[in-house]
């Protein structure tokens, strides 16, 4: 009535009243009367807003990937954004332009540019697994983004739900990964076999080493026995040599004794021969009949009878009859 209007904003809206190009009233959750012909009202929502996104980007190896996520922002400086964009409302509270919707586009465009710059520097496989790293880089870059700061926008949170390739590429990657997994499974089987073979080889080597050690020990025992036998034989040889030396010394003494005895016997024989020779020389001058008579004087009666029988058979003596009495014969036999 008469151009006087009433407006009331909720606690999530920053309301600014402009008159003659100057802000005369502003705040959150305000209500007041104003004169419509001379007043402009700007309503800026200050609650956080979530913007889901899904961008199709290209990796360094020219492969298409889709990045899905969400960015949450809020307007922290309502006066600054009102100077950059038109948030003017009519008396019914409707916006007079489409600039409020453009703010969402600007935020999403900033996110898209940053995502594009990061994805274009990565190969396909690397880009598919870089979501955590990409979230950190996005959060840092958006917080320091000058365009968003000039708009009075603050990024509350950013998240990436998925990074996925095209269906055809995904099938190819699945096939490649499947083959790789099968290969890894085969490699694991081969590694287990190799480990088993290596373990068996170690067991055999250990057995061989044990056998070699036992043989070496037996060889050492045999060598010890041989050395002991050699020492015994050496001592026995020394003992035999000592015995032989003793026997040789004994034989040498015996030989010396025999030689001495032989010399003595020879000396005795020489003395006896010399005595006999002297006796014979003494008998050379004595007649044979005298010597014979002297010899017969020492004979026993039997020897004299025998000598008589012998004399009868010499020098052509002939005996016609010879009578021997039994008593004589008996005495001769005895």
From TrEMBL:
**Source species taxonomy:** Bacteria, Pseudomonadati, Pseudomonadota, Gammaproteobacteria, Thiotrichales
Determine if Manganese is one of this entry's keywords.
Answer: no
- Residues forming the Band domain are 11-186
Q: What organism is recorded for this protein?
A: Cocleimonas flava
The protein in question is named: SPFH domain/Band 7 family protein
The positions making up the signal sequence are none
Q: How does it sit in the membrane?
A: Single-pass membrane protein
Q: Which residues form a coiled coil?
A: 214-241
Cellular component per GO? membrane
- Which terms are listed as keywords in the entry? Coiled coil
Q: Where in the cell is it found?
A: Membrane
């Amino acid at each position: 009535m008469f151009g006087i209007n009433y407006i009331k904003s909720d606690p999530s809206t920053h309301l600014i009243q402009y008159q003659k190009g100057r802000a005369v009233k502003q705040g959150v959750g305000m209500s007041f009367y104003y004169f419509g012909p001379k007043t402009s009202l700007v309503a800026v929502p200050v609650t956080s807003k979530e913007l889901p996104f899904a961008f199709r980007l290209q990796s360094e190896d020219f492969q298409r990937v889709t990045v899905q996520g969400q960015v949450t922002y809020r307007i922290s400086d309502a006066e600054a954004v009102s100077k950059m964009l038109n948030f003017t409302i009519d008396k019914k509270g409707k916006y007079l332009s489409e600039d409020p919707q453009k703010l969402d586009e600007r935020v999403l465009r900033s996110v898209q540019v940053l995502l594009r710059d990061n994805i274009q520097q990565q190969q396909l496989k690397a880009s598919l697994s870089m979501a955590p790293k990409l979230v950190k880089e996005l959060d840092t870059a958006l917080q320091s983004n000058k365009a968003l700061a000039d708009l009075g926008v603050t990024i509350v949170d950013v998240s990436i739900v998925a990074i996925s390739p095209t269906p055809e590429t995904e099938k190819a990657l699945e096939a490649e990964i499947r083959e790789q997994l099968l290969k890894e499974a085969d490699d694991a089987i081969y590694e287990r076999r190799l480990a088993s073979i290596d373990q068996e080889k170690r067991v055999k080597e250990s057995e061989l080493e044990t056998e070699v050690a036992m043989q070496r020990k037996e060889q050492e025992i045999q060598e010890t026995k041989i050395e002991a036998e050699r020492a015994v034989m050496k001592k026995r040889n020394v003992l035999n040599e000592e015995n032989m030396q003793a026997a040789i010394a004994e034989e040498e003494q015996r030989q010396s004794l025999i030689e001495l005895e032989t010399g003595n016997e020879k000396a005795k024989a020489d003395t006896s021969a010399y005595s006999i020779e002297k006796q014979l020389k003494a008998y050379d001058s004595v007649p044979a009949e005298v010597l014979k008579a002297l010899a017969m004087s020492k004979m026993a009666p039997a020897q004299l009878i025998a000598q008589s029988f012998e004399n009868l058979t010499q020098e052509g003596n002939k005996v016609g009859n010879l009578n021997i009495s039994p008593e004589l014969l008996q005495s001769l036999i005895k």
